Amino acid sequence: MENNEHIPCVELKKLVKRFPETVAVENVSLKVKQGEVFSLLGPSGCGKTTTLRIIAGLETADEGEVLIDGQVVNKIPPYRRNCNLVFQNLALFPHMTVEENIAYGLERRKTPKTEIKEKIGKMLDLMHLAGMEKRYPAQISGGQKQRIALARSLVLEPKILLLDEPLASLDRKIRKELQVELRRIQKELGITFFYVTHDQRVALAISDTIAVMRAGRLEQIAPPDEIYDTPRTKFIADFMGATNIFSGRAALKGDREVRLESDEGLVIFAFNHKNIPVEKITGISVHPERIHVLAGDSKSRADNSFKGKIVEMVYQGDFVETKILLLNVENSRSIIVHLNTKLSQKSQFSIGKVVLVQWDKENSNILQD
Ligand code: ATP
């Protein structure tokens, strides 16, 4: 007998979707494990929603297969996939109260009235909506509407919930709160989430696995820490906020290290933990918060240390985003560093000062195209 645990909840095999002007989904393959939060992350127009709609059955694929619990569902209409798959639709019924909106799916399933009441009560609490049950959608805020839409899907306790930017119009504080709540509810109910977002912070916070999509293709599928720390390509590095990206030619140094000569003539070192063939290496990225800044007269012969001049400082609350123009470099090249707010108050770290930037080889991430 097969063990269900090992059958992916959702599997896409070489999915292709063409529109007259674009290939929205190009050869996408992925596996979503039972009970995980799987995020599809990418910029606007990269094909996330189209992929989601194909899984829900609202759009047909031109090529490839969609499997749910190991069964090919390409030819199964959406309403018949619906017993365990819910596509979270933000549109609420305007003529129904909050309570009626949340109850709608349960009533269609002919759930007993007392059970409906109990479940709605729980959901309203969970979503901090208690007291609003008798209001109509026109009488509540955008963020509250989003929470009701979420409640309406979650109350059905589907096996898989397909979510398209469900937290998009919420303010920062509520978004963070709901992220935590969603994650808790998801684990508690054991619902698999397929979560579409363009917001890397949301994806990092809620996912077990992230697939980064670019122009219809997947560029990397990995856990959040891996996507953040070791983005595979320049596109992902940039998208995940590693604003320091150096392109150049790489050579091996010993069997574990790489020496990259950047286009500006900098020599940068990195560990090659993943043994990436040197000919495939096209650059190195470093996150701004992983770079140290030392006073200009500090003596350092360490690898990855460069002299520069502070040219811009933008206060961000917990850090100061600091732009440092490198000296002794042919083309003008700057590095962005997140300077500790306390350090930024010292006079040797003000605009115009010469400083030394330095980072550990461990924090150089190797990039491919
Ligand atoms: P967003 O985050 O802005 O919603 P997305 O990543 O979800 O973007 P999709 O909505 O899947 O992207 O669109 C992918 C591409 O397919 C886009 O270029 C879009 O213009 C195109 N597209 C989507 N739906 C259609 C359609 N029905 N007809 C023609 N082109 C479409």
Summarize the structure.
The strands form 4 sheets. Strands 6-7-8-3-9-10 form a 6-stranded mixed beta sheet, sandwiched between helices. A 5-stranded antiparallel beta sheet has the order 13-12-11-14-20.
Average pLDDT works out at 90
How many helical stretches? 10
| CATH fold name of the largest domain | Rossmann fold
- Helix residue percentage: 10-25%
Report the β-strand fraction as a percent range: 25-35%
Bound molecules: adenosine-5'-triphosphate
Structural class category: alpha+beta
Using only CA atoms, what is the Rg? 25 Å
Strand order in the largest sheet: 6-7-8-3-9-10
The top-level CATH class of the largest domain is Alpha Beta
CATH architecture of the largest domain: 3-Layer(aba) Sandwich
**Overall domain count:** 3
Give the tags.
369 residues; alpha+beta; Rossmann fold; OB fold (Dihydrolipoamide Acetyltransferase, E2P); 3 domains; 6-stranded mixed β-sheet; 5-stranded antiparallel β-sheet; globular; binds adenosine-5'-triphosphate
Note down, in words, how this protein is organized.
This protein has ten helices and 20 strands. The chain is globular and about 75 Å long. The chain has helices at residues 48-56, 78-81, 98-108, 113-126, 142-154, 172-189, 200-206, 224-229, 234-239, 341-344; strands spanning 10-18, 23-32, 37-41, 63-68, 71-72, 85-87, 160-164, 192-197, 209-214, 217-222, 244-253, 257-262, 267-271, 281-286, 292-295, 305-315, 319-326, 334-340, 354-358, 365-368. The strands form four sheets. The chain has a six-stranded mixed beta sheet, sandwiched between helices. Strands 13-12-11-14-20 form a five-stranded antiparallel beta sheet. A five-stranded antiparallel beta sheet has the order 15-19-16-17-18. It is of the alpha+beta class and 369 residues long. The protein has three domains: 10-229, P-loop containing nucleotide triphosphate hydrolases (Rossmann fold), CATH 3.40.50.300; 237-285; 288-360, RNA polymerase II/Efflux pump adaptor protein, barrel-sandwich hybrid domain (OB fold (Dihydrolipoamide Acetyltransferase, E2P), Beta Barrel), CATH 2.40.50. Bound molecules: adenosine-5'-triphosphate. Adenosine-5'-triphosphate binds next to α1.
